[in-house]
Amino acid sequence: MSGLQTHYSARGIEARILAGIRAAGLNPEQRLSPEELGALDHFHTGGLRASRELLEVTQIRADDRVLDIGAGLAGSARLLASSVGCRVDCIEMSPDYCVGAVLLNRLTGLEDRIKVHEGSALELPFADDSFDVVWMQNVGMNIADKRTLYEEISRVLKPGGRYAFQEMTAGNVATSYFPLPWASEPADNFLVSAEEMQSLLGECGLIAELFEDTSDAHLSRTTANATPAAAGQLGLAVFVDNLAQKAANARRSLEEGQVRLVRGVFRVD
Ligand SMILES: C[S@@+](CC[C@H](N)C(=O)[O-])C[C@H]1O[C@@H](n2cnc3c(N)ncnc32)[C@H](O)[C@@H]1O
Q: What is the pLDDT of residues 65-101, one digit of tens each?
């Protein structure tokens, strides 16, 4: 996890979030909707659109108990809780992001349905068979020990439970453009190929219901300079340093096949 704090600058996050919300013309004294915050708190490739698509293929129900691993500011947790009505636990290693997530849960009136836990994906503080769905977006790229990660996911899922995710995987060519959103330098880059990922998931008891490469679809629906928000608009730049360069490097890496974007829904027996 070396250097994570330098990838994700989160100092004074509460103040930065509130300033960003006000600069975008929103009033944090009034109830905000998860959609209004969507450009700020979906910290992964494809943003809010990708979260909605993952929700569509996962088909979560109101009585499902969901765990969002590496939840960041919990934008996806709020999407799930508000649109489906389910309860969501978030596990996030950054104390600052936990503070930001709790703040945004309160501003959207969703604090009763979403619990934020500070902790590690590699040592989940939950009993076996606790969740119907484990949800994870753009987190495994930061985690070298994928076997422990997948064993933990498998352990906390109820029999028949599902793991829904999107991730970057390694492409056919070595990654060469840094900094990337998930790695300042090559030593922080923990991508495996899609084949390795599926095989490791299988060894941990997780079987594919859906596993697809969405790289080309993502590239065709976005443009090279689409990510950074203009001044006065909400965007990830409120809490991510050097966003434009990282986003440009990620796009170039995708275009040149150095990385691939995948989405999956896997089930435990
Ligand atoms: C790119 S952000 C994605 C945040 C969120 N999933 C989203 O899509 O908006 C990656 C997140 O994973 C968290 N993270 C990385 N490694 C983790 C670990 N071992 N345990 C818990 N959280 C972790 C980081 O702190 C960061 O918030």
A: 999 999 999 999 999 999 999 999 999 999 999 999 9
Q: Please tell me what DSSP assigns to residue 180.
A: B
Ligand 1 touching residue 75 (CB < 6 A): yes
Give, using CA atoms, the residue closest to atom 12 of ligand 1.
Answer: 70
Task: Note the pLDDT tens digit of each residue in 183-239.
Answer: 999 999 999 999 999 999 999 999 999 999 999 999 998 876 554 555 567 888 777
Q: Which of 138, 140, 136 is nearest to 46 (CA)?
A: 138
Residue bearing tokens 């250097």: 3
CA distance 46 to 125: 29
* Helical pair 95-107 and 75-83, crossing angle rounded to 10 deg: 30
Structural domain harbouring 159: 4-268
Which tokens sit at 227? 């990510």
- The number of folded domains in the chain is 1
Find out whether the beta carbon of 42 lies less than 6 Å from any atom of ligand 1.
yes
- Of the residues 52, 142, 149, 190, which should be mutated to test ligand 1's pocket, given the most ligand atoms within 8 Å of the CB? 142
CA distance 93 to 157: 20
**pLDDT at residue 224, as a whole number:** 60
For the domain that residue 259 is a member of, what is the CATH number?
A: 3.40.50.150
| Pocket test residue of 1, 6, 92, 241 for ligand 1, highest count of atoms within 8 A of CB | 92
